[in-house]
Amino acid sequence: MTADLLCFSHLRWAFVTQRPNHLMLRAARNRRVFFVEEPVIDEGPSPFGPLEVTRVDGVHVVRPHIPADVPVADWPEVLRARVDLLRSSYRIRRPVRWYYTPMAWPWSDHIPAAATVYDCMDELSAFSGASPLLVDREQRLLAAADLVFTGGHSLYQAKRRHHPRVTALPSSVDASHFRRARVPGAEPSDQAGIGRPRIGWFGVIDERFDMGLVEALADRRPDWQLVMLGPFAKIDEAAVPQRPNLHWLGSKPYEQLPAYLRGWDVAVMPFARNDATRYISPTKTPEYLAAGRPVVSTSITDVVDPYGEMGLVRIADDPASFEAAVEAAMADDLATLRRRADAFLATTSWDATWGRMQALLDTVVGQPAVALGARRGVPVTAQIPAAGSTGARALKP
After folding, report:
1. Do 386 and 267 share a domain, yes or no?
2. Backbone torsions φ then ψ of 124, nearest 5 degrees
3. Can you give the CATH number for the domain in which 146 is found?
4. Residue 171: what pLDDT?
């Protein structure tokens, strides 16, 4: 019988469609998947009790609730009781424990597991507001993990020293979804009235986003329209620059992104160069390419290699160079660009990524912890080249 999967994530399922969503949806095709979010702190009585469970496209999205009067020091004990309630309510016996956040380790380390997986998609300790406990908890998770996956090659280089079984599985793409942007269709109403040329971005707007670069680009080229899609996080929205040609359109559902991309002349990734972006492997890179858009990015390591070196993405950091790169991108021959992008994207997909993960998981399920193999000197690190809701349910004791 295929083991259930308990996934612990720092990201909320409905926030922005990212790596955890893509992979857990595929995992749910042949096993029960429970996606456990970080807790919600309730100022008053929760209508859901200690746990809120919503089934979304086959994935059980689990949201623990904690009363506001519970001291922070007691949260691990409370959350441990919440996850035990989940296990007993759904008869979860020996699941695969799957982690995106090491912060969940203290309240889940007691669970008897068929295997423990750490899918490290970001260096969370480098992010603004990161807990000072994160590094220690990651070390404890790494010591117990059977498998470690990384969302990019730079993260692989950082983590391979700390675990004997690390595999790089860079961000992938649902190419057929984004290729809808290549087909003529109606403009979204909030973009239809914006002039051309349009330079676009979608994604979370936080400390990784180079606000100064975008502001400078808007000032240098008032004839260009900059369309920015995505939620703001950990930044002061009042400080966001306002220009007639700078359009902050807010967060959009994943299903609508191709319709916006269809109307862009160039897609951009104006990432800041800081600690928070040192190890990122932006999922939007292959998504932009699948949409058939020319792409310009700052010099993020996992974008430069392979995309920049293959000539699929132009790289520039300062405002003048970024402006020149966008101007050059607008002159690209789209048929040639798409043919080259498609040849590269044919080597990768979220289905293939999950297939590789599943194959590796099958080798460790029910086996002794990989630390035993490490003591025997087994070399097992590897780099793999980039290649509907049914309503919420309350669980109560």
Report:
1. no
2. -65, -30
3. 3.40.50.2000
4. 83
CA dist 25 and 21 (Å) reads: 6
Q: Percentage of the chain surpassing pLDDT 90?
A: 85
pLDDT digits (tens, 9 = 90+) for 24-68: 999 999 999 999 999 999 988 878 889 999 999 999 999 999 999
- Cis omega (within 30 of 0) on the bond before 197? yes
Task: Check whether residue 138 and residue 58 sit in a common domain.
Answer: yes
C-alpha of 312 from chain center:
22
> Do residues 19 and 121 lie in contact, with contact meaning Cβ atoms separated by under 8 Å?
yes
Domain boundary residue among 327, 345, 363? 345
Do 50 and 62 meet the contact criterion of CB atoms below 8 Å apart? no
158 with 201, same domain: the answer is: no
pLDDT at 373 over 80: no
* Angle between helices 350-364 and 19-27 in degrees, nearest 10: 60
Q: Say if residue 39 is in the same domain as residue 149.
A: yes
Instruction: Write phi, then psi, for 372 (nearest 5 degrees).
Output: -65, -45
Kindly state the tokens that stand for 145: 């993990």
Between residues 174 and 126, which one has the greater pLDDT? 174
> What share of the chain in percent tops pLDDT 70?
92
Residue among 117, 122, 97 at smallest CA distance from 107: 97
CA 256 → CA 106, 329, 376, distances in Å? 38, 24, 51
Same-domain check for residues 298 and 371: no
Residues 154 and 210 in one domain: no
pLDDT mean across residues, the chain? 92
Are 322 and 389 members of one domain? no
Report helix, strand or coil for 304. Answer: helix
The label of the residue with tokens 């460790």 reads: 364
Pairing verdict, β 115-120 and 147-150: parallel
For residues 310 and 126, the model is more confident at: 310
**120/118 Cα distance (integer angstroms):** 6
Please state the domain count of the chain: 2
> Closest by alpha carbon to 267, among 250, 248, 286?
286
What's 104's DSSP letter? G
Q: What residues make up the domain containing 341?
A: 175-345
